[in-house]
Amino acid sequence: MPPPAEPYPFRCARAGDDDVDHVMVRVLDTAALRFPRGGEPDPFARYRFLMHAYHLAMAAGLDDREYTELIGALGRSVAAVDSRGFRVTPLHRSGLLSDRLGFSPRGGVWIKDETGNVSGSHKGRHLMGLLIYLEVAERIGLTAAADRPDLAIASCGNAAQAAAVVARAGGRALRVFVPVDAQAAVVARLRALGSDVVPCPRQPGQPGDPAYLRLRQELAAGAVPFTCQGNENGLAIEGGQTIAYELATQLAGTPMDHIVIQVGGGALASACAQGLREAAELGAIPRVPRLHTVQTTGAHPLERAYARVRARLPEGDGAGRGAGGLWRRDDVERALAAAAHHRSDYMWAWESEPTSIATGILDDETYDWRAVVGAMLTTGGQPVVVTEDRLAEANALGAAAGIPADPTGTAGLAGLLDLLQARAVGQDERVTVLFTGVRRDGAAAS
Ligand SMILES: Cc1ncc(COP(=O)(O)O)c(C=O)c1O
Predict the structure, then answer these.
(1) 230 lines ligand 1 (CB under 6 A)
(2) CA angle 296-300-303, nearest 5°?
(3) What is the pTM assigned to this prediction?
(4) Is 8 buried (19+), middle (13-18) or exposed (0-12) by CB count in 10 A?
(5) Per-residue pLDDT for 445 more than 60?
(6) In angstroms, rounded to a whole number, what is the distance separating the alpha carbons of residues 301 and 209?
């Protein structure tokens, strides 16, 4: 727990060079809350009662109107920078995909389409949540506008582009660490948005992402982590949870059996898992769907960690929730707590430089592995590792369904194709996939 006056409750104060997986997790007191039923088009307004910043603001004496005005002003700034603000994104059952994949009329594939979101992906959700927090902290006097530290992120794709838009909208300086082979068009766009772009060469013999290693130095020197990685900034997960809250509202009580999520650093899957769990606790969905994750044969550090945690567990209770089995929450929590104290036995940088057409899920490490492994084990989901052919097949299907997503954006669908083949998903079941990123000519997605 951070002290109440800690202005940046982002990273565990005890995080250091030990082998412990330190992560800050925002905990919602669901017993004291109701699931928001408002119709505001901006998810940060609609779901404000579920946000840490909102409760902080109220405790400091702001009222609901002042908070919504603050969000409204930030939203207008985002729209001025990116020509669109944050809006609840569409969800629909794809008749075309459901038929082609052999689902019955009872089951099917639901697509949550993020391709029209701010900056063309879901990433801005994580960062808008952070910006709102930073603005509230300033408004209530936890921090001073005259003394704003720079923001920093390591990415050369969707996360960086979203961060540049959101930081610009908030009038904040952003430093972006990128690999030397970052796409020229992306670097140009970041610079046009006013970001300071720092190329980071890979050092021979040094495992791990060089841009991420450089980011770590910058954070140690006092920059604020404006990242989409929960280990660097636990609060970044919260903004991503708006996807799950929206899904819960849009399903309007229809039970969903599975959700299949592409995983790079793991913040997206971690956010969906936590958001769905909270939505179920608040009675907004009848049950949490099984959460499956998708990585590529190019790099699958999450699948490696899952296998190691699973090996520590007693056999599943045979509750028949699929090939992944279903374990008791306390057994899972015990195994994960033990794993967290020996992080390097479970999660370490992928040994070789990975490649894939799904560039956004090629992270050397799954930074948010612990929450995601836990969600798979407790919901009965499983990790799926897909081939390049599968990724291409899914992307073509996504295009046939009329959505201009890139191969990272349709990677969840690639995982669903594998799950169907393995009969881990049945034809009468309902499945959600997230089309997370728009196709951009020639640009990387991470
Ligand atoms: C389009 C898209 N989808 C999914 C992901 C994976 O998200 P995460 O890194 O949070 O696992 C990324 C990450 O870059 C992405 O760009």
Answers:
(1) no
(2) 120
(3) 0.95
(4) middle
(5) no
(6) 14
